[in-house]
Amino acid sequence: MSYYFSTIMDCSVEEAVEKVTAKLKEYGFGIITQVNVQETLKEKIGVEFRKYRILGACNPAYAHRALSAENRIGLLLPCNVIVYEREDGNTEVAAINPKISMEKVGNKELSDFSCEVTEIMEKVIKAM
Question: How many CB atoms are closer than 10 A to CB 75?
């Protein structure tokens, strides 16, 4: 099992960000952070880089369950989604597979409910 789900889209990075944000919202997730890697690398170290966004997706109810089960689980939150421009001009959208990361913690309560979040992330990516 892979640590991520991904799909290729024939649209711009900006359009893909809008689409994945809307689809995540349908499942109660909001984007609480957004890192524009292209801009950051240009500003901080003067490097030209392709369009690349890291979206921090959070569903407050799931976050609360995770934090209640494991104090340090915030190290693995939020669920990251990346959207970036590929060399072929298409856009790739990928989301973390929460089940893989939560399994490593060794807390059965987290493992059980991470399956729910994994199912949602997989549905979101497949719907793109």
Answer: 9
**For residues 61 and 49, what is the distance between their CA atoms, to the nearest angstrom?**
35
Q: State how many domains the chain has.
A: 1
Here the CATH number for the domain that contains residue 45 is: 3.30.310.70
Q: What is the pLDDT of residues 45-104, one digit of tens each?
A: 999 999 999 999 999 999 999 999 999 999 999 999 999 999 999 999 999 999 998 988
Residues spanned by the domain of 80? 4-127
- Confidence (pTM): 0.93
Q: Are 21 and 31 in contact (CB under 8 A)?
A: yes
Which of 87, 33, 78 has its CA nearest to residue 55?
A: 33
Residue type present at position 5: F
Q: SS3 for 85?
A: strand
